[in-house]
């Protein structure tokens, strides 16, 4: 939110609520200019039913359990949070803005205390007022073991929260959260966190009235603070029917044009694209937030002018890469890792990922977006097709004049990011440099278990990472902060890097509340880490999604990379 395959631990980006994008968004103009958007030229209007066709069910529809960023997509229709994402196209949509709060938060001098004031007149779906105590309670219940699944940051960031077990077991609550009055909430942190306004977009910051809390059954009818309320939740989110919340305190971000939103999930991706393509009946007013067009489908759509006009393009902060374990020979030698970096043929990798329309070659770990602090660099320049001669030269220096044989671990899943096709493209490229690559394909669960176990991590494997919010922090820290190496659980520091200078710089950037200044520092740190050659960036995915012919006001931000259902209107 976004490594999608392990989103319960960190990220942010693609299989649950994610489906996990820059200026390439084929969308409309600014959110307030009345533009009809890519779906047509008519002015957006209220009314009608929007259908959402998804492959993944909207499971665990409880703000404590949802792993979403920016207030989520479908979740943000029901749950408002202290802050949210800016609902605009491209880079403008990567900014954090106030939601329930009057601003994005007021930090203390060292960013260890954050204070928020709620807007006046906020109400739930039943007309009762939203208070700061409800924000506090909503966060506290997210610590309950039976409501696990949300983002892990609060347990790490809030002072004294590491062992808290939620309000069902501990009636005292979290002393780190103070509510001096009904409109003020104060957070006390363990250490400086300049990006707390981003964290406050997570659904754990949605208010929950204690009197209406039904524990694990709350997901069946959570109390809405957003423009829609849940009127039906079938089979744990397989079908979610939302209707207008007449007590919604209209905000500046959500347009909420349709009267109803019908979320239908558990569908095969090919069926979703067929229905959106045909655009018949209710499907004419339908969208998807988690199903891409594949290469063959995209080729067909691109050849049809009418269909091509109904494709939204998005970019999410996401990188696919080759990972090294420097504790495993021969990858303990930086020259071997550098040789592989030079030998990579990114054009063949991009082709294996579906072609240039669906993947962009990457030489930096940070995605090519301003909010991340992207700083262009290519420390091992190999052109589009690799530099086999330079790779052989480095291998000779490393004591391998006749080349070497290594094993590349990947998933056998159809997920193109770690698929056999990507692995084969890497294998073919390295062969030109005298490197024989044996492919070790594992079933997806075995693959995930192995690459995220610090004790069993292979020496060379395919990996990917997505950010929980558009900043370098949740992108670089989980992968390169040595203090985040987990020896007895899910580990994401794939290179097992523990460089004191890197750790120190991460701490220094985290103290900054000027997010533009922080972004520049993240970009510089990315380059510094890149010189260590513990990863080889391969590509950043591009998302292409169809929508129905009666859909208007398409907005796709760089925060989520998907069509924003809070902005859509239907004909």
Write up this protein.
- The chain is α+β, with helices and mostly antiparallel strands.
- The chain has a domain of 224 residues: Dipeptide-binding Protein, Domain 3 (Dipeptide-binding Protein, domain 3, Roll), CATH 3.10.105.
- 22% of the residues lie in helices and 18% in strands.
- The protein is built from 15 helices and 21 strands.
- It has a 5-stranded mixed β-sheet with strand order 8-9-10-1-11, with no helix packed on it.
- Strand 8 and strand 9 form a beta hairpin.
- It starts with 48 loop residues before the first strand and ends with a strand.
- The N terminus is likely disordered.
Give a quick precis of the structure.
With 571 residues, the protein is α+β, with helices and mostly antiparallel strands. The protein is 22% helix and 18% strand. A hairpin with a 5-residue loop joins β4 (106-107) and β5.
SSE layout and pairings?
Elements lengths: L48 E5 L21 H4 L4 E3 L10 E3 L7 E2 L5 E5 L14 H10 L11 H5 L19 E5 L2 E5 L7 H4 L28 E7 L4 E6 L15 E5 L4 H10 L7 E2 L7 H8 L2 H4 L2 E4 L3 E7 L9 H10 L2 H7 L6 E3 L26 H10 L6 E8 L8 H12 L3 E8 L1 H8 L8 E7 L6 H8 L19 H11 L4 H16 L4 E7 L1 E4 L4 E2 L16 E2 L1
Parallel strand pairs: 1-10, 1-11, 15-16
Antiparallel strand pairs: 2-3, 4-5, 5-7, 6-7, 8-9, 9-10, 12-19, 13-17, 13-18, 14-18, 20-21
Helix pairs in contact: 8-10, 9-11, 14-15
């Amino acid at each position: 939110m976004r490594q999608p395959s392990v989103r319960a631990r960190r990220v942010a980006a693609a299989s649950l609520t994610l489906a996990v994008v820059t200026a390439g968004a084929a969308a409309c103009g600014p959110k307030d200019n009345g533009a009809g958007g890519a779906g047509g030229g008519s002015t957006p209007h209220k009314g009608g039913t929007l259908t959402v066709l998804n492959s993944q069910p909207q499971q665990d529809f409880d703000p404590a359990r949802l792993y979403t960023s920016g207030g989520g997509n479908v979740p943000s229709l029901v749950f408002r949070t202290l802050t949210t994402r800016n609902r605009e196209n491209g880079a403008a949509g990567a900014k954090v803005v106030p939601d329930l709060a009057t601003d994005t938060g007021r930090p203390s001098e060292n960013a260890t205390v954050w204070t928020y004031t709620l807007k006046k007149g906020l109400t739930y779906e039943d007309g009762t007022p939203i208070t700061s105590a409800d924000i506090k309670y909503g966060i506290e219940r997210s610590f309950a073991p039976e409501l696990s699944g949300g983002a892990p940051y609060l347990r790490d960031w809030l002072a004294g929260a590491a062992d808290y077990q939620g309000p069902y077991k501990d009636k005292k609550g979290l002393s780190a959260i103070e509510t001096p009055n009904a409109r003020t909430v104060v957070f006390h942190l363990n250490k400086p966190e300049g990006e707390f306004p981003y964290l406050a977009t997570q659904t754990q910051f949605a208010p929950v009235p204690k009197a209406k809390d039904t524990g694990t059954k709350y997901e069946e009818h959570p109390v809405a603070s957003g423009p829609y309320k849940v009127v039906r939740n079938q089979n744990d989110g397989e079908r979610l029917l939302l209707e207008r919340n007449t007590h919604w305190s209209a905000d500046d971000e959500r347009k909420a044009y349709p009267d109803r939103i019908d979320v239908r999930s558990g569908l095969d991706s090919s069926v979703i694209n067929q229905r959106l393509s045909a655009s018949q009946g209710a499907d004419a007013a339908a969208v998807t937030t988690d199903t891409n067009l594949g290469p063959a489908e995209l080729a067909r759509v691109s050849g049809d002018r009418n269909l091509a006009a109904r494709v939204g393009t998005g970019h999410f902060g996401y990188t696919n890469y080759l990972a090294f374990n420097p504790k495993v020979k021969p990858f303990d030698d930086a020259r071997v890792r550098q040789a592989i970096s030079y030998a990579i043929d990114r054009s063949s990798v991009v082709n294996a990922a579906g072609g240039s329309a669906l993947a962009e070659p990457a030489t930096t770990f940070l995605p090519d977006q301003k909010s991340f602090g992207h700083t262009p660099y290519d420390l091992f320049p190999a052109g589009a097709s690799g530099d086999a001669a330079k790779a052989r030269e480095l291998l000779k220096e490393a004591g391998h004049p006749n080349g070497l044989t290594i094993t590349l671990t990947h998933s056998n899943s159809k997920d193109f990011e770690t698929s056999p096709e990507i692995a084969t493209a890497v294998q073919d490229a390295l062969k030109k440099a005298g490197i024989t690559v044996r492919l070790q394909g594992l079933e997806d669960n075995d693959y995930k278990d192995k690459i995220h176990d610090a004790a069993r991590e292979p020496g060379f494997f395919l990996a990917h990472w997505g950010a929980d919010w558009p900043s370098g922090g949740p992108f670089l820290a989980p992968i390169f902060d040595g203090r985040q190496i987990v020896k007895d659980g899910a580990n994401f520091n794939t290179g097992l890097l523990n460089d004191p200078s890197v750790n120190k710089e991460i701490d220094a950037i985290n103290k900054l509340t000027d997010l533009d200044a922080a972004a520049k520092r993240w970009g510089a740190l990315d380059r510094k880490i890149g010189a260590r050659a513990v990863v080889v960036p391969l590509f950043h995915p591009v998302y292409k999604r169809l929508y129905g012919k009666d859909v208007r006001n398409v907005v796709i931000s760089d925060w989520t990379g998907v069509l924003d259902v809070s902005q859509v209107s239907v004909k």
